[in-house]
Write a structure and sequence with these properties.
Rossmann fold; nine-stranded mixed β-sheet; GMP Synthetase, Chain A, domain 3; alpha/beta; about 500 residues
Length: about 500
């Protein structure tokens, strides 16, 4: 069944329910949103020649058009390719070339970056709010196309350890499983609630669209198009039953704003946090300031929002019982997937032992777009190898210990060291480099580049080099110049030793 049916169902049952809003003002009801999507779907097919299964790229900051483009694409049997709005033009170009979309919708703010990177042959670039965009709605509306459950719905590009993104092929089946699990395991959402999109719709907040559409929530896009804690607090007073996703750093900023005299978010129902560790002290402070309004989920692009969850009820029970071990866990497996902790041979380990987290079930994607090698390596055993290390307790709570893939999570954004290292190694003065993550009170982790370079090399020139090739948020926040990098007998750089050395020199605890 087409995921677009979730929207159509609400449009029939509660046509006047607010569907999309900008700030405090409703823009479209569900009836209006579905009608617009049916016209836009016809424009994609009849005017732009999109055929069954074609991809539709979206390069935009959070805008209301994001929702109607997603819905129209699914309505027409097409797949969306939401792309991180913060990427460098060269990075945008690589994803567009790999995905080969028939159409790329870009915001006025980002259309120039798409052109600078290069629009691939066979792709039509259309700027939203332009005459070309509005003309698409003049086509006679199409009926919703029936699709098989395993039809591609979302091509989700996630950075890879080789420095090139991988396109996780999320299907209609995957997104429906995610939707069911969300309501059963993560958060109870009432009809006509509000979903506040303060995190990017391209990834962090975009996965929440279908669970909330299923019950008729209004998708509220901040006027700023992003996260501003003062704006979030005001919107949590303008709307009732507000739900939102926030990275731990965003939660900390909201808590600080309230402590500094900001307004009480009277309409806030739930903040779902994830994407990075939430340290116990920060979680306890959030409970003191916000009450028990926080829930946690653990997932990956390859199993969107579906691995484990820790609900608001469980947060409250654990806090009142003094069970810090549960508060520091990632929760228990969600109902639509099976989760184990396994050894290197894929054999399940007993509670208390640390191994790799493996997942299987209807939430797990069938593979990576045009990347059979990565598909075999990550999913060839029938289980999704997450690359995360963890352990279960006797009650089934999963605690994540470390990441086997050297991933750095800064401000909720995934940054792979290999990608940054490859860029720095193209600088003529850099001989060797190792990029690691170190604890940071504001961002959770910060990217630190440990560099062996020619004498006199300055951090400023390396920073400028990074900015010319990768997105600003990926560049190192600090450069440490060394005479040599620690290595094993086989010449492998010992990142764990490097990290421990820097932490010891700074008198910081290892996390």
């Amino acid at each position: 069944m087409n995921l677009a049916h979730l929207f159509l169902r609400i449009a029939r049952r509660d046509p006047d329910a607010p569907a999309v809003a900008v700030g405090a003002k409703t823009l479209w009801t569900y009836a209006e949103l579905v009608a617009r999507a049916a016209h836009l779907a016809a424009g994609l097919v009849d005017r732009l020649g999109c055929a069954d299964g074609d991809r539709i790229a979206i390069v935009m900051e959070n805008l209301p058009e994001y929702i109607e483009i997603e819905l129209a694409s699914w309505w027409a049997g097409l797949a969306i390719v939401p792309i991180n709005a913060k990427l460098h033009p060269k990075e945008l170009a690589w994803i567009l070339a790999n995905a080969e979309p028939r159409v790329c919708f870009a915001s006025p703010k980002l259309a120039r970056a798409v052109v600078e990177g290069g629009v691939p042959a066979g792709c039509r670039l259309i700027e939203v709010r332009s005459k070309d965009y509005e003309e698409l709605f003049a086509a006679e509306p199409h009926a919703m196309r029936a699709v098989e459950p395993d039809r591609l719905a979302w091509l989700f590009y996630t950075s890879g350890t080789t420095g090139r993104p991988k396109g996780a092929m999320i299907t209609h089946r995957n997104l429906r499983a995610m939707t069911y699990a969300y309501h059963m395991d993560v958060d109870a959402v009432a009809p006509r609630s509000a979903l506040l999109h303060a995190a990017p719709l391209s990834h962090g907040s975009g996965c929440y669209v279908s669970p909330h559409a299923a019950v008729g929530s209004c998708h509220v896009v901040p006027e700023s198009g992003g996260f501003d804690e003062a704006e979030v607090l005001e919107l949590c007073r303008s709307w009732q039953r507000v739900h939102m996703f926030a990275a731990p750093t965003m939660v900390k900023r909201i808590v600080r704003a309230i402590e500094a005299g900001g307004p009480e978010p009277t309409g806030l129902a739930t903040i779902i946090y994830g994407g990075a560790p939430m340290y116990l002290a920060d979680l306890q402070r959030a409970h003191e300031v916000l009450g028990f309004r926080l829930a946690q989920l653990y997932g990956q692009g390859e199993s969107p929002m579906c691995i484990t969850a820790l609900s608001k009820r469980e947060h409250e029970a654990a806090a009142k019982a003094g069970r810090n071990d549960i508060l520091q866990s990632a929760g228990t497996p969600q109902v639509v997937c099976e989760v184990i902790v396994a050894d290197e041979e894929g054999r399940p380990l007993p509670p208390g032992e640390v191994g790799e987290v493996l997942v299987r079930g209807d939430s797990v994607v069938p593979g990576y777009w045009r990347n059979p090698e990565a598909t075999r390596a990550t999913m060839g055993s029938g289980w999704l190898r997450t690359g995360d290390l963890g352990s279960f307790d006797a009650a089934g709570y999963l605690t994540l210990k470390d990441r086997s893939k050297d991933l750095v999570i800064s401000g909720g954004a995934n940054i792979y060291p290999r990608e940054v290292e490859e860029v720095l190694l193209t600088h003529p003065k850099v001989k060797e480099v190792s990029v690691i993550g170190l604890p940071d009170p504001e961002w959770g982790e910060k990217v630190v580049a440990c560099v062996v370079a020619e004498p006199g090399t300055r951090a400023e020139e390396l920073d400028a080099h990074c900015l010319a090739h990768i997105a600003r948020f990926k560049r190192p926040k600090e450069y440490v110049f060394l005479d040599a990098l620690p290595k094993s007998a086989y010449g492998k750089i010992l990142k764990r030793e490097l990290r421990a050395r820097l932490l010891a020199e700074r008198g910081e605890d290892q996390r």
